[in-house]
């Protein structure tokens, strides 16, 4: 069962996701989805999104998928490694859907994969990441200080 307390703390503290205007949905334990509409603030050129926006979308998706598992033990996660393959350009007005799934979960390390599609179902990026699980109180003690 997903620990809603950890997810609630994550949602409340994730200022980056709010800045990018990403919409989160937890699909099930070990799976998460983020959706983002590419706006002018996301652009690197007059028509194309910055790769960092796509990487941020993916990192968030992978991380929340991992969090749905790590959170069961009152843990949060941090990115240890992120591999992104950009397959197609992302343009102004595109609506991207990133779906991440935990492939392997140990006590401390979780391996997660994701795909990103646009509104036409075209795969625009693939990614994988490794995440470190650690006690939630460590992350949220930093916020209190």
TrEMBL record:
InterPro entries per the UniProt record, alphabetical: ACOT13 (IPR039298), HotDog_dom_sf (IPR029069), PAAI_dom (IPR003736), Thioestr_dom (IPR006683)
**Domain Thioesterase per the UniProt entry, residue ranges:** 49-125
Please give the Gene Ontology molecular function terms for this protein: fatty acyl-CoA hydrolase activity
What keywords does the record list, in alphabetical order?
Hydrolase
- In terms of domain of life, where is this protein from? Bacteria
- PANTHER family reported for this sequence: ACYL-COENZYME A THIOESTERASE 13 (PTHR21660:SF1), THIOESTERASE SUPERFAMILY MEMBER-RELATED (PTHR21660)
Q: Name the family.
A: Belongs to the thioesterase PaaI family.
Query: What protein name does the entry list?
Result: PaaI family thioesterase
